[in-house]
Amino acid sequence: MIDAFSRLPGVGRRSAERLAFHLLKADPEEALGLARAIEDLKKLVRHCRICFNLADDELCSICRDPRRDRSSVLVVEQPKDLLAIEETGSYTGLYHVLMGRLSPLEGVGPEDLTIEALIERVRSAPEGELCEVILGLNPTLEGDGTGLYLGERLRGEDVRVTRLARGLPTGGQLELANRAVLAEAIAGRRSLDDGF
Amino acid sequence: MIDAFSRLPGVGRRSAERLAFHLLKADPEEALGLARAIEDLKKLVRHCRICFNLADDELCSICRDPRRDRSSVLVVEQPKDLLAIEETGSYTGLYHVLMGRLSPLEGVGPEDLTIEALIERVRSAPEGELCEVILGLNPTLEGDGTGLYLGERLRGEDVRVTRLARGLPTGGQLELANRAVLAEAIAGRRSLDDGF
To answer: Do B91 and B171 share a structural domain?
Structure first.
């Protein structure tokens, strides 16, 4: 059991021992509750058939929700990125989870991600329903590489392809921004005619 | 002397004492060197007559430099913001230092900043020379307020007014961005037709 705990991320040998002894002394209900929660997680949680978000059924709660705007699909790397965007409350469309990003160094190619499913989803969308694919990848080298690849793959399809804005993070300080952020904020500057 | 040191930012009473005793024991050359450096700072450093950047002469090294592109002026709050942008090496135009930002709470109004000098500078620029004023204020509430005010004041002048891009900071992680940053990254998303 100590071995099993110490394989978890961020749990060292000493912490694993502490956890194991805590459960040994704990109320049987507490210990069995944890065991059942882990079993349920593996039994009940799966990936949405449409968008690959975490789901407790064939479709995730977002794809099932009739109030979501079906005209846009926001592409993210992981379910946790989707959660971060949901928490903003400022996006009401659908998602597509790639389950990673292209990484030549780690041997992750297009076939290891859900890219074909995305292309197929765009192609098979009912006429006039899907207008925009928003690339919401991480602002990193690999995220950009993946975005460029998706842009290429989606070229010629009947959707507008956009990407999340890059620049100074709201609430931050200009003098603390690193060179890459400042350079991109200058290059991507926008006219006040388009609103502040 | 301990009093004088302890008035400096980040220097407490104990540090001030340590500094004073260090100088007491130090080589006279070292102590007098520091005194002269402080005197020179106050005597020689002034603000550029055109852009209010720090300068050792009537004009700062940027306004004096004939290689700088005179078609754009980037407006910043403080000389240290100007330095941060210079370090990126990706801006070759001129600057205007406001010497602060509008802050109703702290009683800082337009007349406390170098705003009139900026407006006058835009109006008196040689015909066709100055094309763009780039607002490079901090991405904060007060920075935005100042930017909005400048946008209003420059409306009707014969220059394009832009602001630095806002969004995800390059190199960061989407899941670590706060709600405001993500919301602005979604709202400000751009089409891949305009380049990635």
So the answer is: yes
- pLDDT for A39 equals 87
* Average pLDDT of span A112-140: 96
- Which residue of chain B has the CA closest to A83? B175
The string over B109-119, giving b where at least 16 C-beta atoms fall within 10 Å of a residue's C-beta and e elsewhere, is eeeebbbebbe
Map residue B195 onto helix, strand or coil.
coil
Instruction: Please indicate, yes or no, if residue A55 is contained in any of the structural domains.
Output: no
Angle of the B115-124 helix axis to the B141-154 helix axis, nearest 10: 30
ipTM of the complex, rounded to two decimals: 0.77
Q: Which residue has the tokens 């949901």?
A: A86
B196 has pLDDT over 80: no
> Which pLDDT belongs to residue B60?
96
Q: Is residue A52 part of a domain?
A: no
Confidence of residue A194 (pLDDT cuts 50, 70, 90): confident
For residue A136, list chain B residues with Cβ-Cβ distance below 8 A: 174, 186
Contacts of residue B134 in chain A, CB cutoff 8 Å? 186, 189
For residue B186, the chain A residue with the least C-alpha distance is A164
Q: Residue B39 belongs to a domain with what CATH number? A: 1.10.8.420
Within this chain, do residues B78 and B118 fall inside the same structural domain, yes or no? yes
The number of distinct structural domains making up chain A is: 2
Report CB contact under 8 Å: A181, B170. yes
User: Same structural domain for residues B20 and B105?
Assistant: no
Domain that holds residue B101: 67-194
Contact B130, B110 (CB under 8 A): no
> Quick check: is B54 in a domain?
no
Burial of A5 (0-12, 13-18, 19+ CB in 10 A): middle
Closest CA–CA distance from residue B21 to any residue of chain A (Å): 34
CATH number reported for the structural domain that contains residue A96 in this entry: 3.40.1360.10
Arithmetic mean of pLDDT, B45-59: 94
